[in-house]
Design a protein that fits this description.
This protein is an alpha/beta fold. It is 33% helix and 26% strand. The chain is built from 4 helices and 5 strands. The longest helix is centred in the middle third of the chain and has 14 residues.
Length: 111
């Protein structure tokens, strides 16, 4: 199994203000560990992010009563929110192909 060599934060203590203070490139992944769509997407998310190890990856366990996902208007999982210096640039909802994620990373952070 391929693993990411860069840091993945799995944190439900982070809040919107913390994310807005981030510097540089980050992908916030909203999902749930029990979600079938999220489980199916993990290999393609890893395949895309392993090529972009300078992009911080933060996984947020979302669900009922979790305000952070609501503040980003997350309705379906997984949702990838691409931030540049704490500001949302674009998002992908339920990606099914690592190429789409890679192309978005390249377009947003390296064009």
């Amino acid at each position: 199994m391929t693993t990411l060599k860069h840091k993945i934060d799995i944190d439900n203590q982070v809040n919107r203000a913390d994310l807005e203070k981030l510097t540089g490139s980050a992908v916030i992944e909203f999902g749930a560990s029990w979600c079938g769509y999220c489980q199916a997407a993990q290999p393609i998310i890893i395949a895309a992010l392993i090529q972009h190890q300078n992009v911080k990856h933060i996984k947020i366990e979302d669900g009922k009563g979790q305000r952070l996902g609501r503040s980003y208007a997350v309705k379906l999982w997984p949702t990838l929110v691409f931030l540049n210096n704490g500001v949302e640039v674009i998002r992908l909802v339920r990606p099914t192909d690592s190429t789409v994620i890679t192309d978005t990373l390249n377009e947003v952070y390296f064009s």
